[in-house]
Amino acid sequence: MLSSGLKLIRERTPPWRGAVGRVRAGLTAAVRGPVAGDRFAEHHARIWHTPGPRWFAEGDPIWTVHSDIAMLIGGIRALLLQSLHPVAMLGVTDHSDFRDDPLGRLQRTSHFITVTTFGTVSDAERSIAKVRGIHRRVRGVVPDSVPSAEPGRAYRADDPDLLLWVHAAEIDSFLSAHRAFGATPLDRAGYDRYVAQTCVVAERLGVVDPPDSVDRLDAVIASYRPVLTRGPGSDDVVDLLLRRPPIVGPAGPGYRLLAAGAVSLLPPWARSQLGLPPRDRLPARTAARTLTRILRWGLAGDTAV
Length: 305
Known about the structure:
Elements: H1 2-12, H2 15-36, H3 40-49, H4 61-66, H5 71-82, H6 86-95, H7 102-118, H8 121-137, E1 139-141, E2 154-156, H9 160-181, H10 188-205, H11 214-223, H12 232-243, H13 252-265, H14 268-273, H15 281-300
Antiparallel strand pairs: 1-2
Protein backbone atom coordinates (compact mmCIF):
# COMPACT_ATOMS: atom_id res chain seq x y z
CA MET A 1 0.00 0.00 0.00
CA LEU A 2 2.80 2.43 0.89
CA SER A 3 4.62 1.85 -2.39
CA SER A 4 1.41 2.33 -4.35
CA GLY A 5 0.73 5.61 -2.55
CA LEU A 6 4.21 6.92 -3.28
CA LYS A 7 3.83 5.92 -6.93
CA LEU A 8 0.55 7.84 -7.13
CA ILE A 9 2.14 10.94 -5.58
CA ARG A 10 5.00 10.80 -8.06
CA GLU A 11 2.59 10.46 -10.98
CA ARG A 12 0.57 13.49 -9.82
CA THR A 13 3.62 15.72 -9.20
CA PRO A 14 3.90 18.35 -11.96
CA PRO A 15 7.16 18.00 -13.92
CA TRP A 16 8.13 21.61 -13.16
CA ARG A 17 8.30 20.83 -9.46
CA GLY A 18 11.02 18.31 -10.12
CA ALA A 19 12.97 20.90 -12.08
CA VAL A 20 12.58 23.42 -9.26
CA GLY A 21 13.79 20.82 -6.80
CA ARG A 22 16.87 20.14 -8.89
CA VAL A 23 17.66 23.86 -9.12
CA ARG A 24 17.34 24.22 -5.35
CA ALA A 25 19.50 21.17 -4.77
CA GLY A 26 22.14 22.59 -7.08
CA LEU A 27 22.14 25.93 -5.26
CA THR A 28 22.36 24.20 -1.90
CA ALA A 29 25.33 22.12 -3.02
CA ALA A 30 27.06 25.17 -4.51
CA VAL A 31 26.84 27.00 -1.18
CA ARG A 32 27.24 24.14 1.26
CA GLY A 33 30.22 22.45 -0.36
CA PRO A 34 32.77 25.26 -0.08
CA VAL A 35 31.43 26.68 3.20
CA ALA A 36 30.48 23.61 5.23
CA GLY A 37 32.51 20.79 3.68
CA ASP A 38 31.82 17.09 3.44
CA ARG A 39 30.87 16.67 7.10
CA PHE A 40 27.95 19.09 7.02
CA ALA A 41 25.28 16.50 7.86
CA GLU A 42 27.26 15.22 10.85
CA HIS A 43 27.98 18.70 12.19
CA HIS A 44 24.43 19.88 11.51
CA ALA A 45 22.92 17.02 13.48
CA ARG A 46 25.16 17.61 16.46
CA ILE A 47 24.71 21.38 16.58
CA TRP A 48 20.94 21.44 16.19
CA HIS A 49 19.83 18.18 17.81
CA THR A 50 22.10 17.85 20.84
CA PRO A 51 20.07 18.79 23.94
CA GLY A 52 21.48 21.25 26.45
CA PRO A 53 21.60 24.93 27.40
CA ARG A 54 22.72 27.45 24.80
CA TRP A 55 24.06 30.98 25.12
CA PHE A 56 21.59 32.36 22.57
CA ALA A 57 18.02 31.63 21.50
CA GLU A 58 15.98 31.91 18.35
CA GLY A 59 14.91 35.52 17.94
CA ASP A 60 18.14 36.91 19.37
CA PRO A 61 19.89 39.37 17.04
CA ILE A 62 22.95 37.12 16.83
CA TRP A 63 20.72 34.30 15.49
CA THR A 64 19.20 36.66 12.93
CA VAL A 65 22.57 37.88 11.66
CA HIS A 66 24.54 34.63 11.77
CA SER A 67 21.84 32.54 10.10
CA ASP A 68 21.50 34.81 7.07
CA ILE A 69 23.11 34.06 3.71
CA ALA A 70 24.62 37.58 3.86
CA MET A 71 27.26 36.05 6.15
CA LEU A 72 28.99 34.79 3.00
CA ILE A 73 29.59 38.37 1.92
CA GLY A 74 30.48 39.46 5.44
CA GLY A 75 33.09 36.73 5.69
CA ILE A 76 34.87 37.87 2.53
CA ARG A 77 34.82 41.49 3.71
CA ALA A 78 36.16 40.46 7.12
CA LEU A 79 39.17 38.67 5.63
CA LEU A 80 39.99 41.65 3.41
CA LEU A 81 39.69 44.13 6.27
CA GLN A 82 41.60 41.97 8.77
CA SER A 83 44.48 41.62 6.32
CA LEU A 84 45.35 45.31 6.69
CA HIS A 85 46.87 44.69 10.12
CA PRO A 86 50.39 43.56 9.17
CA VAL A 87 51.23 41.92 12.51
CA ALA A 88 47.91 40.11 12.75
CA MET A 89 48.57 38.76 9.25
CA LEU A 90 51.89 37.27 10.33
CA GLY A 91 50.04 34.69 12.38
CA VAL A 92 48.11 33.71 9.27
CA THR A 93 50.89 33.77 6.67
CA ASP A 94 53.54 32.12 8.87
CA HIS A 95 51.47 29.64 10.85
CA SER A 96 48.53 28.49 8.76
CA ASP A 97 47.72 26.73 5.50
CA PHE A 98 45.42 29.42 4.15
CA ARG A 99 47.34 29.56 0.84
CA ASP A 100 47.28 25.80 0.28
CA ASP A 101 43.85 25.06 1.79
CA PRO A 102 41.76 28.23 1.84
CA LEU A 103 38.48 26.32 1.73
CA GLY A 104 39.52 24.21 4.70
CA ARG A 105 40.20 27.36 6.68
CA LEU A 106 36.84 28.80 5.61
CA GLN A 107 35.04 25.64 6.68
CA ARG A 108 36.71 25.59 10.10
CA THR A 109 35.84 29.24 10.68
CA SER A 110 32.25 28.67 9.55
CA HIS A 111 31.94 25.68 11.87
CA PHE A 112 33.30 27.67 14.83
CA ILE A 113 30.81 30.50 14.32
CA THR A 114 27.94 28.04 13.92
CA VAL A 115 28.82 26.05 17.03
CA THR A 116 29.36 29.08 19.25
CA THR A 117 26.16 30.76 18.04
CA PHE A 118 23.70 27.87 17.83
CA GLY A 119 25.31 24.94 19.64
CA THR A 120 25.20 23.86 23.26
CA VAL A 121 27.32 25.68 25.82
CA SER A 122 29.52 22.63 26.31
CA ASP A 123 30.20 22.26 22.57
CA ALA A 124 30.82 26.01 22.22
CA GLU A 125 33.27 26.03 25.11
CA ARG A 126 35.06 23.01 23.66
CA SER A 127 35.49 24.82 20.31
CA ILE A 128 36.74 27.96 22.05
CA ALA A 129 39.27 25.97 24.09
CA LYS A 130 40.57 24.39 20.89
CA VAL A 131 41.04 27.77 19.21
CA ARG A 132 42.75 29.22 22.28
CA GLY A 133 45.12 26.26 22.30
CA ILE A 134 46.05 26.98 18.69
CA HIS A 135 46.55 30.67 19.46
CA ARG A 136 48.96 29.87 22.30
CA ARG A 137 51.24 28.04 19.87
CA VAL A 138 51.33 30.82 17.27
CA ARG A 139 54.33 33.00 18.11
CA GLY A 140 57.06 34.72 16.16
CA VAL A 141 59.18 37.80 15.58
CA VAL A 142 58.24 40.72 13.35
CA PRO A 143 60.64 40.76 10.36
CA ASP A 144 62.14 43.91 8.84
CA SER A 145 59.88 43.64 5.79
CA VAL A 146 56.63 44.24 7.69
CA PRO A 147 55.39 47.82 7.27
CA SER A 148 54.24 50.00 10.21
CA ALA A 149 55.58 47.54 12.76
CA GLU A 150 58.62 47.42 15.03
CA PRO A 151 61.19 44.98 13.55
CA GLY A 152 62.34 42.30 15.95
CA ARG A 153 59.33 42.68 18.18
CA ALA A 154 57.83 39.42 19.41
CA TYR A 155 54.22 38.73 18.51
CA ARG A 156 51.73 36.06 19.50
CA ALA A 157 48.25 35.23 18.25
CA ASP A 158 46.71 35.50 21.72
CA ASP A 159 47.87 39.11 22.13
CA PRO A 160 44.70 40.94 23.31
CA ASP A 161 45.40 43.82 20.94
CA LEU A 162 45.51 41.52 17.91
CA LEU A 163 42.49 39.56 19.10
CA LEU A 164 40.51 42.78 19.46
CA TRP A 165 41.32 43.83 15.90
CA VAL A 166 40.36 40.47 14.44
CA HIS A 167 37.11 40.43 16.41
CA ALA A 168 36.15 44.03 15.59
CA ALA A 169 36.86 43.64 11.86
CA GLU A 170 34.84 40.43 11.77
CA ILE A 171 31.79 41.76 13.61
CA ASP A 172 31.86 45.04 11.69
CA SER A 173 31.83 43.02 8.47
CA PHE A 174 29.00 40.71 9.50
CA LEU A 175 26.96 43.70 10.61
CA SER A 176 27.65 45.67 7.42
CA ALA A 177 26.71 42.72 5.22
CA HIS A 178 23.49 42.09 7.12
CA ARG A 179 22.50 45.76 6.90
CA ALA A 180 23.02 45.73 3.13
CA PHE A 181 21.89 42.22 2.17
CA GLY A 182 20.08 40.62 5.12
CA ALA A 183 16.55 39.30 4.67
CA THR A 184 15.33 41.10 7.80
CA PRO A 185 17.65 44.01 8.69
CA LEU A 186 17.56 45.07 12.34
CA ASP A 187 17.00 48.53 13.75
CA ARG A 188 19.78 50.40 15.57
CA ALA A 189 18.84 48.88 18.93
CA GLY A 190 18.89 45.41 17.37
CA TYR A 191 22.37 45.88 15.97
CA ASP A 192 23.54 47.25 19.33
CA ARG A 193 22.27 44.04 20.93
CA TYR A 194 24.00 42.01 18.22
CA VAL A 195 27.36 43.63 18.94
CA ALA A 196 26.83 43.13 22.68
CA GLN A 197 25.96 39.44 22.22
CA THR A 198 29.16 38.79 20.27
CA CYS A 199 31.07 39.77 23.43
CA VAL A 200 30.11 36.42 24.99
CA VAL A 201 32.39 34.48 22.67
CA ALA A 202 34.97 37.25 22.22
CA GLU A 203 35.71 37.49 25.93
CA ARG A 204 36.12 33.74 26.21
CA LEU A 205 38.58 33.85 23.31
CA GLY A 206 40.69 36.36 25.23
CA VAL A 207 39.46 39.68 23.84
CA VAL A 208 39.70 42.31 26.55
CA ASP A 209 36.80 44.78 26.74
CA PRO A 210 35.25 44.01 23.34
CA PRO A 211 32.87 46.67 21.98
CA ASP A 212 29.28 46.24 23.14
CA SER A 213 27.52 48.71 20.83
CA VAL A 214 27.71 49.94 17.25
CA ASP A 215 29.24 53.25 18.35
CA ARG A 216 31.95 51.48 20.35
CA LEU A 217 32.59 49.12 17.44
CA ASP A 218 33.06 52.08 15.10
CA ALA A 219 35.44 53.67 17.61
CA VAL A 220 37.54 50.50 17.88
CA ILE A 221 37.88 50.24 14.08
CA ALA A 222 38.90 53.91 13.91
CA SER A 223 41.49 53.45 16.68
CA TYR A 224 43.42 50.92 14.56
CA ARG A 225 43.65 53.14 11.48
CA PRO A 226 47.21 54.37 12.26
CA VAL A 227 48.64 50.83 12.14
CA LEU A 228 46.65 49.52 9.17
CA THR A 229 48.49 49.37 5.88
CA ARG A 230 48.96 47.31 2.76
CA GLY A 231 51.60 44.62 3.01
CA PRO A 232 52.60 41.23 1.59
CA GLY A 233 49.95 39.52 3.69
CA SER A 234 47.13 41.73 2.47
CA ASP A 235 48.31 41.33 -1.12
CA ASP A 236 48.13 37.56 -0.68
CA VAL A 237 44.58 37.80 0.65
CA VAL A 238 43.44 40.06 -2.20
CA ASP A 239 45.02 37.73 -4.72
CA LEU A 240 43.41 34.66 -3.17
CA LEU A 241 39.94 36.09 -2.61
CA LEU A 242 39.54 38.36 -5.63
CA ARG A 243 42.01 37.52 -8.38
CA ARG A 244 42.47 33.75 -8.07
CA PRO A 245 39.54 32.63 -5.89
CA PRO A 246 39.51 29.01 -4.72
CA ILE A 247 35.91 28.50 -5.82
CA VAL A 248 35.79 27.52 -9.48
CA GLY A 249 33.41 25.70 -11.79
CA PRO A 250 29.67 26.51 -11.84
CA ALA A 251 29.89 28.28 -8.47
CA GLY A 252 32.72 30.57 -9.64
CA PRO A 253 30.62 33.37 -11.22
CA GLY A 254 28.36 33.46 -8.17
CA TYR A 255 31.32 33.73 -5.84
CA ARG A 256 32.69 36.65 -7.84
CA LEU A 257 29.38 38.50 -7.46
CA LEU A 258 29.47 37.93 -3.69
CA ALA A 259 33.08 39.09 -3.56
CA ALA A 260 32.21 42.24 -5.50
CA GLY A 261 29.45 42.87 -2.96
CA ALA A 262 31.99 42.47 -0.15
CA VAL A 263 34.38 44.97 -1.75
CA SER A 264 31.51 47.44 -2.16
CA LEU A 265 31.01 47.35 1.63
CA LEU A 266 34.61 48.22 2.48
CA PRO A 267 35.18 51.82 3.58
CA PRO A 268 36.96 53.91 0.92
CA TRP A 269 40.18 54.08 2.96
CA ALA A 270 40.34 50.27 3.16
CA ARG A 271 39.78 49.83 -0.58
CA SER A 272 42.52 52.37 -1.24
CA GLN A 273 45.00 50.67 1.09
CA LEU A 274 44.26 47.27 -0.43
CA GLY A 275 45.01 48.64 -3.88
CA LEU A 276 41.45 48.09 -5.07
CA PRO A 277 40.16 50.63 -7.58
CA PRO A 278 37.20 52.70 -6.47
CA ARG A 279 34.11 51.45 -8.23
CA ASP A 280 30.49 52.39 -8.51
CA ARG A 281 28.99 50.52 -5.57
CA LEU A 282 25.44 50.38 -6.93
CA PRO A 283 25.92 47.70 -9.64
CA ALA A 284 27.95 45.45 -7.31
CA ARG A 285 25.43 45.75 -4.49
CA THR A 286 22.47 45.22 -6.81
CA ALA A 287 24.01 42.07 -8.24
CA ALA A 288 24.99 40.73 -4.80
CA ARG A 289 21.54 41.50 -3.40
CA THR A 290 19.89 39.64 -6.28
CA LEU A 291 22.16 36.64 -5.81
CA THR A 292 21.57 36.46 -2.05
CA ARG A 293 17.83 36.39 -2.71
CA ILE A 294 18.26 33.55 -5.17
CA LEU A 295 20.48 31.61 -2.76
CA ARG A 296 18.04 32.24 0.07
CA TRP A 297 15.25 30.82 -2.06
CA GLY A 298 17.36 27.80 -2.93
CA LEU A 299 18.27 27.06 0.67
CA ALA A 300 14.66 27.50 1.79
CA GLY A 301 13.84 24.24 0.07
CA ASP A 302 16.58 22.34 1.92
CA THR A 303 15.20 20.30 4.80
CA ALA A 304 18.63 20.17 6.44
CA VAL A 305 18.78 23.94 7.01
